[in-house]
Amino acid sequence: EQEEEDDFQRFLRRVDEISNLVQGLSSTDPAVKEKALAETEKRLQDQGTGKEEESKSVVNRTVINTQPSVRDGEAVDTGNFLAFLEKDAAERAKRRKRNEQLANALKEKGNDAFRKGDYGVAIQRYTEGLTKLKDKQELYTNRAQAYLRIHEYEKAIGDCEWALKCNAKCIKAYFLMGRAHLALQHYSESRQCYQKILEIDPQKESLFKDCMKEVNLEEKRMRDEERAVKEVEAGKPAALSIKELLQRILGPDQNILYYTGGIRLLAGAVRDCTDQTLFRTNNGFSILRDKEVVRRGFCAERKTPAEVDLTVSLLLLWQAVCTGNEENQRVLLTQPDVGAQLPKLLSSGVLQIQKETLALISLYSETENGRKLLVKHQDLTRWLQILMMFVSSPDARASSAMQILSDLAEEERFRTQCHVLLSTDVLPLFTQLLSSAKLVNQRALACCIGILGNLCADAVPRVQMAESRECWQACLKLMDEHLDASTAEYQECLFAVLGLMMNLLLESNVVIQCMAVDISGRCMSLLRDKDGRIVTRATGVLSRILPASSLAVEAAVKGGVVKKLVKLLKAGGEITSSYALQTLSICTRSDSQAREDLVKSDKTLSVLLKLLDSENEMIVGNAAFCLGQCLAVPGAATSLLNSNVVMVLLRHAGGDASRAAVQENAAVALGKLCVAEPRHMLQLRKLNGFAILNSSMKYLHSS
Prior knowledge:
The protein is mostly helical. It has 6 domains: 1-39; 135-219, Serine Threonine Protein Phosphatase 5, Tetratricopeptide repeat (Alpha Horseshoe); 235-350; 379-507, no CATH class; 523-596, no CATH class; 602-702, no CATH class. It contains 39 helices and no strands. The longest helix has 38 residues, at 78-115. It is flat and about 105 Å long. Residues 39-60 are annotated as: Disordered. It is found in: Cytoplasm, Myofibril, Sarcomere, A band; Cytoplasm, Myofibril, Sarcomere, Z line.
C-alpha cells in the first residue's frame, strides 16, 4: 500500500515537472526560457549517463518517456525536444480523456446502484472506474459514501485519504471521513475533520456546527451508556443471578442505554442449561413484548448507534440462552417480532448485526431439529437471495452464510420455497456474482455455486436456470477468466461451475443449442488443465453438450478433441474414461473425421481393446460402440488380426450384462469386424461364434 502511494505521488510530481518544462520552453520571457532550456539539457544528460532511472507509475499505466538521450558534448536540439514533449503530452492527454470517459461511465453506473440501495454493486463499479483513472477524486468519495452505508468505516477513511491526495481541499472527503471516525468513536479525529471544512470554506459554518453537535451528542451517549451499565451492576455482590437481572430489566421503564447494559450483563451470566431454563421460566423472552423501548429499537428500520448496540446485545443474549437448548430455540422463534426481523437484520448492512444474526441462525441450521423449527416458523422464500448476497463480503460473514445455506438446502420445504423467486430475484443476483468472480469472496462463491448446483437436482430450478442465457454467459465469463486468476480459490469456483453446468445439461432447450459451440470450446481449452478434477468435469460437460448440436461436434473434431480424449483414456481414471468414451461415441457416430482421427491416434486400437476388459459396463458398451464405428476406416480391421478382439467381443455379445446395449454394441462391432476383414471369420468359427451371436441377438430382440 505504501509503495502504491509512493508511485502515485511520484507520478503527480513528474506530470507537474514536465508540464512546467513545456510551458517554460514556450515562454516569451528569455530568462524563463533559458532556465527551462538548461533544465532540459540537464535532464537529457542525466538520462544519457544512466543517472536517472525510467520513472514508471501505476496511475493510468503511464510511463514518462525520457528518450531520446544525449551523449556528452552533443548539442541539444530544443526544437525537436519541445515537439517531442508536446507530442508525448498530447498522447497522454488523449489516453487520459479516453480513460476519463470510461471512468465517468462507471461512476454513473455506481451512482445508479447507490440510489437503488445496492451498495455492493456501487462499490464494484467505483472500483472498476479507479482502474481506469486512479486520480479521480469523485470515485474515492463516492466509494467512501457507499462504504459508510455498509458500515465499513476503515475503508471509507482510506478512500477519503486518497481523495485528499487528489484534491487537498475536498470538503466532501473531510465530511465523510468525519462521519466514519464518529462511527468508530474517534471523537477527536472526527472534530479535526469538521474543523478542516471550516478552514477551507468559512461559509460552511452552519454545517460545521451541526457536525460538531452530532459529535458531542454521540460522545455524551457513550458516557451515558457506561454509566447505565454501572447502575445495573450497582449493589450486586460477586454477581447477580439470572432471576435478579431479569427483575431489574423487566422492572420500571428505563432508557435504551439501561436496557443495553442490562441485556449484555444477562448474556454474560448465562453459563449452562440451568441458567437457560431459569431465563425461560422467569419470562426472559418477554423483554421484546413487555418493553416498548426495547421492541422499538430492535424493530427500527434505520437504526441509531444506540439501537444497533441494543440489537447486538439481544442477539448475543439469545445465542447464550439457545445454544444446545431446543425448547428455548422453539420459544424464541414463536416471538412474532423475532420471526419478522431476522431477514431484515440479515439485510441491514450493519456488519455487527449481520455477524451476530448469522451466528444465531447457525445454532438452528446446524441441527436437524433446528432446521425444522426454521422451516416451520419462518417464511424462507427470500432467504436464498439474502444469504447469497454475503458472497460479496470479504470477512467471515460469507462463510457463515454459505454454511447456513448448505444446511438449509437439506430441507425439502426450503428447496421448494426457493422456487418462488428463483427466476426474478435469485438468478439475476447469481449471474452478477458469477460475472464479478474476481471481486467477490471466491471461497464463498464456490460454495454458492455448489449449493445452486445441488438445488438443480430438482427439475423446476434446473429448467429455469438452463433457460437463462445470462446464466450461461456468466459461466463462460468465469471460465474465460480462469487463466488470469489461477488462485486456488478461483480454481474451486471453476470446478463448481463445471459441476453446475453438468447438472443444467440434463435439460435440452434452444438456449443450450445456440451456445453449444461456445460451451464446448471453453471445455476443450480446459482439457490440458493441471487439475485432474477440472479435466474430468470439463470432459463430462463435453459429453453432455455435444449431443445438443452437430455444429458443436464438428467444431470440436476440428479442434482436435479426439486426440485429447485418447490421451485421457491412456492416462486412466474410471470417471474421466467414462466421460471421454461417451464424448468419443458422440463424435465417431456422426463425424467421419473423428473416426479417422481415432484410428490415427491409436493405430492398433489398443486403448479401446484395453477398455473392453473394464468391469464398468458403461465403459465396455461405449468402447465397443467406438470400435464398431472405427472399423469403417480402411485398414482398421486388418490391424486387429493378431489381437484377441474376436474373443473379447464374442464374450460380451453372448454375456449376461445388465445393460442390453453392451451385448448389442459388441455384436454389431463383431459383425462390422468380419465384414471389413473376412479373415476374422475364421477365428469366429473356431469359437462357435455364429451360434452364440444368433442366440444373443434373438434374446435381444425378444427383450
